[in-house]
Amino acid sequence: xxxxxxxxxxxxxxxxxxxxxxxxxxxxxxxxxxxxxxxxxxxxxxxxxxxxxxxxxxxxxxxxxxxxxxxxxxxxxxxxxxxxxxxxxxxxxxxxxxxxx
Length: 101
Prior knowledge:
The structure is a single chain. By secondary structure, the protein is an alpha/beta fold. It has one domain (3-92): HesB-like domain (Hypothetical Protein Aq_1857, Chain: A), CATH 2.60.300.12. Helices cover 17% and strands 41% of the residues. It has helices at residues 6-16, 64-69; strands at residues 3-4, 26-31, 38-43, 51-55, 58-62, 73-79, 85-91, 98-100. The strands form 2 sheets. It has a 4-stranded mixed beta sheet. It has a 4-stranded mixed beta sheet with strand order 3-2-5-4.
């Protein structure tokens, strides 16, 4: 199962707590059909078949393929020099390998 760092949970809560975002919203991670790319988007609710992760009030919706691809991984976030959030996925025990999206 995908783990979520405290920083990522805080960022997700901040994003979904914005006034224009409906209650119960979360970030959705979906894989393309080839399994070569992941997309991250804001979603009002999970789609049918999505796996829901609620980590300290931060909601994530993962499609079926993303669940498989992200098993044993950890979601983290950093802030780049321009102030934008950069979510990254890394192996839980090997922080040298990551995939930004």
